[in-house]
Amino acid sequence: ANLTSQEFAQNEDLLLLILSNYLERKIIFHPILKPIHDFQKDKTFGDNFETVFHIFGYRNHGQSYYISAANQ
Q1: How many helices and strands in the chain, by DSSP H and E?
Q2: Which of 14, 43, 58, 65 is most buried, taking the most CB atoms under 10 A from its CB?
Q3: Is the peptide bond prior to 31 cis by the omega test (within 30 degrees of 0)?
Q4: Residue among 40, 17, 43 at smallest CA distance from 29
């Protein structure tokens, strides 16, 4: 609760990067709701991997929701 929205998103980005490396998969994050803030924009983690997982998510201060989508 002491983190700003930007710091919260940065922590989650780090977790998604770690997960991407662990799974050896590229993870592409797509925000679910519009309008979005800068910390909620599309992001890609693990650019060096071929297999792709798309996830849709909602980030707000202190809480997040993620939905896995079809992989390619």
Answers
A1: 1, 4
A2: 43
A3: no
A4: 43
* pLDDT tens over the chain, length 72 residues: 688 878 888 888 999 999 999 999 999 998 887 756 666 678 899 999 999 999 998 877 777 888 888 655
Beta bridge partners of 63: 60
The partner residues of 27 in beta bridges, in order of sequence, read 45, 53
Sign of CA dihedral 14, 6, 38, 54: positive
Structure tokens at 52: 């792709």
The residue type of 15 is: L
